[in-house]
Amino acid sequence: MPGPTTLADDLLAELFDALWIEDVAGFSSRGVLGAPDPDGTRDYALALGPGHLRARVRPDGWREGVRYAGAARVETARESRSLDAAGLLALALDALPGLAPAIRERTRDEMAGILDDLPDREAAADALVGQALAGDPIAWERIAAWRDRPFHPLARARQGFARADSLAYGAEAGRYFALSWCALARDRLGIAPGADPAGPAAALLDAPQQALLAREMAARGLHASHVALPLHPWQAEHAVPGRFAPELRDGRLVILDLRGPLAAATSSLRTVALPARPGLHLKLPLDVRTLGVRRLLPPQSLHNGLHGAALLAAGLARDPVLAGSVGLANEAAFWHFAEADGGLYAERPGLLGCSLRRLPAGDGPAVPLASLAVAPRGGVPPALRAVAGDAPDLGALFADIAGLVLGAILRGACLGFVPELHGQNALVAFAGGRPRRLILRDHDTVRTAPDWLAGIGLPVPAYLVTDPLRNSLLLRRPEDLVAYAQTLAVDVALRAVAEAFAAAGAGFTLAEARRILVATVERVLDEAEAPRERRALVADCLLGRETAPFKEVLTPLLAAAALTTSMPSRLGRAPNPLVAGRRS
Known about the structure:
Blueprint: H1 7-21, E1 32-33, E2 42-48, E3 51-59, E4 66-75, E5 80-82, H2 85-94, H3 101-117, H4 121-133, H5 137-147, H6 163-169, E6 177-185, E7 189-191, H7 201-204, H8 207-219, E8 226-231, H9 233-238, H10 240-243, H11 245-250, E9 253-265, E10 271-273, E11 280-283, E12 286-290, E13 293-295, H12 299-318, H13 320-325, E14 326-328, E15 330-337, E16 353-358, E17 366-368, H14 382-388, H15 394-415, E18 417-418, E19 426-431, E20 434-440, E21 447-448, H16 450-455, H17 478-502, H18 510-527, H19 532-544, E22 547-552, H20 554-559, E23 570-575, H21 577-583
Parallel strand pairs: 14-20
Antiparallel strand pairs: 1-2, 2-3, 3-4, 4-5, 6-8, 6-9, 7-15, 9-10, 10-11, 11-16, 12-13, 15-16, 17-19, 18-21, 19-20, 22-23
Helix pairs in contact: 1-2, 2-3, 4-5, 4-14, 15-17, 15-18, 17-19, 18-19, 18-21
Protein name: Siderophore synthetase component
Pathway: Siderophore biosynthesis
Domain Aerobactin siderophore biosynthesis IucA/IucC-like C-terminal: 398-554
């Protein structure tokens, strides 16, 4: 059985693989491969600057090409030295003569920060696995965070956090922390249409804590004029004092003494779970940059989430199979700071506010899809063992998981929408040791093909978009909609689960995974109640083309002079793994 790897090993491998597939600095087009050895690995060499990059590679297993297998080093006339991820990235960046110095420095700093702040997975693994096997939902979220965004080598960068902050507030360390609180004047409060005008305190605090809050608000003379809102403690210390100084001076914003309840980060850094409130999550703005994005909570996105959720609900109402296999988290309650003019696109409203997420009741244990791709000690992922037993049938389970994921995303695509279905945004609910239902969360990026929606009478969401020409929510071509299904569901979420299952040493292979995916795509599209021409287009995109879209992450990051509130990415093309699965 393959043994566990270190986080540093995983980071180096993911960086090499991203450089290869995106052909950064000629990694794939100029790299030279040696003859295969009996174990299938090959030498790899690439001339970079005054020396050569050398490594061992192996067949990809997922698509045509190679993957990193170890022993990265740089060789010059004077020396040969091993490389970690920072060294490999520096070589690649130095081989891009047109790269702006500021971008080169920014990217190096991100990688250096990751390596400096890598948590000790090996030290935490035993306790974490024990908690996960005991059925602790927060432990499942922590396990998902160990993998973070699969196949994105800079996903762990958290600009703004010191190492102590990563330990205190990151999901990997699993520490609990007390929420901070503030009181915001009602004339500076924006509220979701169905949210409690009194704020979220009743949903978050127990009776003694509510009594403490009421006494403090009354003692400060704020009970009638202000609403209490929770703050992430890091945000309260580092972002609020400077950005809301005028409101703090004039009393429209007051930092309270109340602390609590205890919370812990989920696999999404800015979303926390509360052990005293199972099934309830709290999303808070956190002015830390991950994936090149400031993790704020813009009112624009909150309102888009209402429209996305309404469309998903309409789709479920139209398709009984979807209604029986997909559940939706309720994210309709939110509160945020509002500027005097009420504008939703200003920056400060995204820095202060919160959103509640209520998971649907009545399901069995629900684990993040991403947690099924993480095995800190090797072998079968512990989150899977917790819900399916110590010796599960990985082939049957992968088929069930693929059926849920592809059933949701392809049936939705045929209707005209695709949820943001990557491993962090979906939960798999188990019953009797088998996957039975998919629960979707984070509804603010439900992609749509408006013409397809209108063609069957589904509502076109009234999304708030700042750049109609570049927005990715209202897509002009159905092929672009299907591309999100391919990149998010197949090439990220299900690929990560397939690779973890194949690494478990239980006889499951990536070739088997691809065959299962092909059969599942064919079955789902055959059963979907949608116009035949739509199903044919979706089938052709997924199964009929030699290349498929994949999400480039390094190339657009290196092209971005300034980072915004959207993750730099673009769609590239690569060999289609499902075409290979169809042939095998």
